[in-house]
Amino acid sequence: RFKPKYMYTVPAYLTYITNEFKKEGIDPKKELPDLKSIKVVAENFPIPWAEKMMDFWNSRLSEIYGSTQLLTIAGPTCERGCVYEGKRGVIHFLEHIILTEVVDRNTREPVKEGEEGEIVVTPFSKEGSPVIRFLTGDKGRLISHDMCDCGRPFSGLQSGTISRYDDMIKIKMVNIWPESVTNILFSKPGIRDYSVKVYLDNEGKEEVDLYLDFEDGIDKEYTVKVMKELVDDIKSNVGVRMNISRVEGLISRGADFKVRRWIDEREKGLLGH
After folding, report:
1. Plot region of 3 (φ>0 → left; ψ -120 to 50 → alpha; else → beta)
2. How many CB atoms lie within 10 A of CB 80?
3. CB–CB of 234/240 below 8 Å?
4. Nearest-angstrom CA–CA distance, 198 and 236
5. What is the H or E stretch that residue 143 is in?
6. Closest to 116 (Cα-Cα) out of 102, 135, 137
7. pTM above 0.90?
8. Which residues contact 76 (CB under 8 A, 6 or more apart)?
9. Which end of the chain is more exposed for a tag (fewer CB within 10 A), N or C?
10. What is the mean pLDDT, run by run of 10 residues, along the chain of 273 residues?
């Protein structure tokens, strides 16, 4: 109805509304002729997915990088967007507003062009709670301005590949630390272990499945009661609704809790849409 010129979303939700448009037979090339750019944030995405989105929406796909500590963005992609001629674009730093560095996580020394490291930010205009060389916990690949033909003198980050070093996972634009879910679950007697799968359903909608492994001898009536309570507890305290079910036998093995308990299949799901 409003004929928007821009959209701002995450890759998973863009996939979802794309599928909804297809189901309803809506062609954005006809219904949204003024759409110029779609800006995505917060999630990785593969190149083929980006190319399909740009073709369907007849619009450039852009990406921005920012954080709560900045109160703004550290940089956007240039007019070439997220993907250009089959290659990933560059999120150019806004160096006159925020000093953005990429450093080796162990030595704290600047990484070389093309290498990955932790993103460090120093906003110049923040006064209420200033931060200097704030370690974001985000992992990014440093790209030189020479590797982009747009002419901007600012280096930046490779588009579509920014991730996290710690256990935080962003689901439906909500920052979730697995430890907070662990604390809620193990406050209930009888739960032995759990695992979580984050994925896109057939319509491209983000879903979270949580599987519980109860101790031997726990009766079914108790497990049903606990799972019902946990749906509400997790939604209230974490901010995301999870589909909870029971499985038999130990789920997890190994020492890395995030890898063995939390499985994120959203990027793989984007390729199927």
Report:
1. left
2. 18
3. yes
4. 19
5. strand 134-143
6. 102
7. no
8. 39, 62, 63, 64, 65, 91, 92, 94
9. N
10. 89 83 91 93 84 92 86 88 92 91 93 93 84 90 91 92 82 84 86 87 88 87 94 93 84 46 82 66
